[in-house]
Design a protein that fits this description.
With 161 residues, the protein is mainly alpha-helical. It has five helices and no strands.
């Protein structure tokens, strides 16, 4: 007989899933609290708070589902936090918000990709360049051409020439 992997029947919890579920529920709770001032409306007459309420509700449901799965999965202890990666990803998103009006959508997306790619050492320069070109093109296609958003794709200094 072949040795089969042991099934987890001990009932121990998966700490990673529990922590993730609690985090998702906390974000949903904070977001819902901050959304209280917005009028929700109905599905037929959506107010500015309708979509955030829907998203935060789905996030809370996802958090509960992750906790339930975590209570049934085997032990998976929490490991050390990847602080460098967390700071780089959050920094990339923050840079996008700060830069989009100053340097345009194209360069902002490129900046996000480059900063975020530093968080994973397995990326190559050629891979990051290809991903940057592809994502800038997709953002141009979706947001500028498709949705016709009033966002400058190029830096404002170049569009004023």
């Amino acid at each position: 007989m072949q040795d089969e992997p042991a099934q987890n029947t001990t009932g121990k919890i998966n700490a990673k899933d529990i922590a993730t579920g609690v985090f998702l529920i906390a974000i949903a709770g904070i977001g819902s609290f901050l959304n209280l001032e917005n009028v929700i409306g109905t599905a037929a007459q959506m107010g500015p708070g309708y979509m955030p309420m829907l998203i935060f509700s789905l996030l809370a449901i996802l958090g509960v589902a992750v906790i339930v799965v975590g209570l049934r999965n085997g032990p998976d202890p929490l490991e050390r936090w990847a602080w460098k990666e967390l700071v780089l990803i959050l920094g990339a998103m923050s840079a996008f918000g700060v830069l989009i009006e100053r340097i345009g959508l194209g360069l902002s997306v490129a900046t996000v990709v480059v900063i975020a790619s530093i968080a994973d050492r397995s990326h190559t320069v050629l891979g990051v360049a290809g991903m940057t070109v592809a994502l800038v093109f997709i953002c141009w296609l979706v947001f500028i051409i498709g949705l016709n958003l009033n966002v400058s794709f190029l830096p404002p200094a170049l569009t004023e020439l």
